[in-house]
Amino acid sequence: MSEARRQHITGPATDSDFELIALTLVSGCLEVLAMWLRGDLTTERTAFTNFLVTMILTATHTEPATKI
After folding, report:
1. What is the helix (H) or strand (E) element at residue 48, kind and residue range?
2. What is the model's pLDDT at position 65?
3. CA 2 – CA 36 distance, rounded (Å)
4. How far is CA 41 from CA 14, 30, 47, in A?
5. Local structure of 64: helix, strand or coil
6. Hey, which residues does 64 pair with through a beta bridge?
7. CA 42 – CA 16 distance, rounded (Å)
8. The whole model's pTM is what?
9. 9-68 pLDDT, tens digit each
10. Within 10 A of 9 (CB to CB), how many other CB atoms are there?
């Protein structure tokens, strides 16, 4: 992997990165929620909620490429 590509992956997020993060979170969380509501997941409500909140907070803890 080139140094420029490696730096992009580990460096500050671009607007495109934030868009991908948002789309992934929304679609992924909705799919997992639907599975849970159908009974396909045997996780308790509190554990499930804590997992989703942790996932969202972790994914959104990203430094923007430019400061506003």
Report:
1. helix 45-59
2. 61
3. 41
4. 34, 13, 11
5. strand
6. 13
7. 35
8. 0.62
9. 567 778 888 888 889 889 999 999 999 999 999 999 999 999 988 888 887 776 666 655
10. 9
